[in-house]
């Protein structure tokens, strides 16, 4: 398959804070879809924490993590932005922005101390967020009579497939997302489980949250 099978993203914001030798490090983690969104969040945080000494950041964007950027924002080169970027990459995340705000506490931390502090702060910000997985899948719409609903639900439960939407009309329709490699196995299994009394419409392929 030419497409990457899956990638991890944030599905909620996160915020964490650490204190190192009286300096406060506040990390805000955001899901972002593109560089414009990242730039807007960076401007928003810089305005919110206008009185802080530094607002350092890093982001990774794109399903193949093709767009990355980091900034030390006045800290010694390589002591802030790069450690934040490494935390994002280490978590296997993309479409993720982490901004770490530092309020200087009057004690110099040294190069190693800064790297550790920015790393720990970024980890705390991401730990406070929720992480989801985007999987390359195909949408399927299942249509059955009411007497087959239990069969469908049982089969989907056995295969750990979540129903994204359900519509109860003359018949019942369920929307599901199935990994591309599993489509034939799932459609064959549903057909057998419902004794052929099921209509399966194949929809779009793309990345859907699991």
UniProtKB/TrEMBL annotation:
Gene3D superfamilies, per the entry: 3.30.70.240, Impact, N-terminal domain
GO BP field: regulation of translational initiation
Residues of the UPF0029 domain: 142-197
Top-level taxon in the UniProt lineage: Bacteria
Coiled-coil residue windows: none
InterPro entries with a match to the protein in the record: EFG_III/V (IPR035647), Impact (IPR023582), Impact_N (IPR001498), Impact_N_sf (IPR036956), Impact_YigZ-like (IPR015796), Ribosomal_Su5_D2-typ_SF (IPR020568), UPF0029_Impact_C (IPR015269), UPF0029_Impact_CS (IPR020569)
Occurrences of domain Impact N-terminal (ranges): 21-124
GO CC aspect terms: cytoplasm
Signal peptide: none
Family statement drawn from the similarity comment of this UniProt entry: Belongs to the IMPACT family.
Alphabetized NCBIfam families for the sequence: IMPACT_YIGZ
Protein name in the entry: Uncharacterized protein, YigZ family
Taxonomic placement: Bacteria, Bacillati, Bacillota, Clostridia, Lachnospirales
């Amino acid at each position: 398959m030419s497409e990457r099978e899956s990638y991890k993203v944030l599905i909620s914001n996160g915020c964490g804070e650490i204190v190192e030798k009286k300096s406060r490090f506040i990390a805000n983690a955001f899901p972002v879809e593109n560089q414009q969104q990242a730039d807007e969040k960076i401007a928003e945080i810089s305005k919110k924490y206008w009185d802080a000494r530094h607002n350092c950041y890093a982001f990774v964007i794109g399903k193949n993590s093709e767009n990355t950027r980091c900034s030390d924002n006045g800290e010694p080169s390589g002591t802030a932005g790069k450690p934040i970027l490494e935390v994002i990459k280490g978590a296997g995340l993309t479409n993720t922005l982490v901004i770490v705000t530092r309020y200087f506490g009057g004690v110099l931390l040294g190069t190693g101390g800064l790297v550790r502090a920015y790393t720990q702060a970024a980890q705390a910000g991401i730990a406070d967020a929720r992480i989801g997985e985007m999987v390359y899948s195909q949408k399927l719409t299942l249509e059955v009579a009411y007497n087959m609903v239990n069969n469908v639900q049982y089969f989907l439960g056995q295969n750990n497939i979540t129903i994204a939407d359900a519509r109860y009309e003359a018949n019942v329709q369920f929307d599901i997302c199935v990994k591309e490699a599993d489509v034939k196995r799932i459609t064959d299994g549903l057909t057998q489980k419902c004794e052929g009394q099921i209509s399966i419409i194949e929809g779009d392929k793309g990345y859907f949250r699991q």
